[in-house]
Amino acid sequence: AVAALVGGLEVAHFIFMRFRDGLRLDATEWLIDRSSVHLMQELATAARAAVPAGRKVLIVAESHENEVRYLQPADEGGHGFDAVWVDDFYWSLRRFGTGETAGRLQDYSGALDAVARTLNQGFHYEGDHSAFCGGPRGSRARDVPAWHFHYALQHHDHVGNRAMGDRLHHATGLDWYRVASAVLLLQPATPLLFMGQEFASSSPFRFFTDHNEQLGRAVARGRRREFMSDPQFDRSLRLPNPQAVASFDSSVLPLEERSRSPGREIEALYRSLISLRSRDSVLRAQKRRGFRAAALHDELLMLHWDQAEGARMLLANFGPSRRVAFAAAGVTAVQWTPVLATNATQFGGDGEFCDVDETGVCVPGHTAVFLEAGPDSA
Question: Which of 329, 316, 314, 317 is nearest to 373 (CA)?
Fold first, then answer.
């Protein structure tokens, strides 16, 4: 039925001949096909056949299922996709940073251990019981290379499906947001950025529509029912009408914020983190082997790489107080050299120094510090 609606699998040829940059399929859990060859497997095959030889085709699934079958080749019963969105990273980090518990957030503990578990496993849920789903969710994918997983701090669904379209940094503040951004952009999985997050846009991204009058009223009523039934929704707020032009206009990015504080400094941080990721051989390799994440404290997350090219470490202190990572946690401090700190003044921070000595690495409050050590030195 789906193939008939899109005019058959020739749609893949049109997409790749016209755009040639890849294909993301939305809400793939709703593409139900019980035939011997799944529609998504057919689509992946047709898409790759539609482009010239030697050209890379990137096919991505947006799904809440945490299913490894998307990434498995067709001869192993999979769909043969290149990557899958993993919302576990966002949900576990948002629950930790905001304390919210509504909807899918109820499935996460609110502790940094949940974030570390996601980073170590790829998926947080590997068949565990999900309270939100009312049953088991996910599959084991720890052996799948990290680049196949797309992690985000937020994307269009996370923001647009909120009542007011507010972004993550609107709830957490910029100090916390800088730390979270470093974790996203330096961890091994492939980071996904949402428009405006790179300069901490002040604008919301609201749910807006341009339906006919009857459907528009029905959508607006549905939105009101959804949020009025949420005990955490502030009923003093006036819910934006999806059909109102103002809902669209308020969502337009104020690009002028990139040239003034704090947008200028946040963009400088994002540029520096992305540059570091691209030039550092350990980060660029996106290897899961030799990588581990651990919560060293309620508010201190460690990402540690121990690989042939050398050792790397990110210490992300989400709390306001200075925290020390000790050698007992696998941190031999004297060999480490700080490379980047998110609290640097050019990034909008206070510039407080990160101390490294024989007692450990002392990380200022609301700061993520990336450190490196050469081969055989850590």
Answer: 314
Candidates 33, 62, 352, 355; catalytic one: 62
pLDDT digits (tens, 9 = 90+) for 145-162: 999 999 999 999 999 989
Q: How many CB atoms are closer than 10 A to CB 271?
A: 11
- DSSP secondary structure string for all residues of 51-72: S-TT----EEE--SS--GGGTS
Annotated catalytic residue, options 21, 26, 29, 76: 26
Residue 5, pLDDT score: 35
Helix (H, G, I), strand (E, B) or coil at 28: helix
Give the CA dihedral 213, 217, 219, 222, nearest 10 degrees: -170
Question: From the centroid of its chain, how far is CA 32?
Answer: 26
3-state secondary structure of 368: strand
Length reported for the chain: 378
Tens digits of residue pLDDT in 24-59: 888 888 888 888 888 889 888 888 888 788 788 889
Taking CA atoms, 338 is separated from 58, 276, 277, 301, 372, in Å, by: 35, 13, 15, 16, 7
Could you tell me the CA-to-CA distances from 108 to 35, 95, 119, 123 in Å, in that order? 35, 7, 14, 13
pTM of the model: 0.91
Indicate if 26 belongs to the active site.
yes
Least confident of 22-36, 252-266, 356-370: 22-36
The answer to whether residue 62 is catalytic is: yes
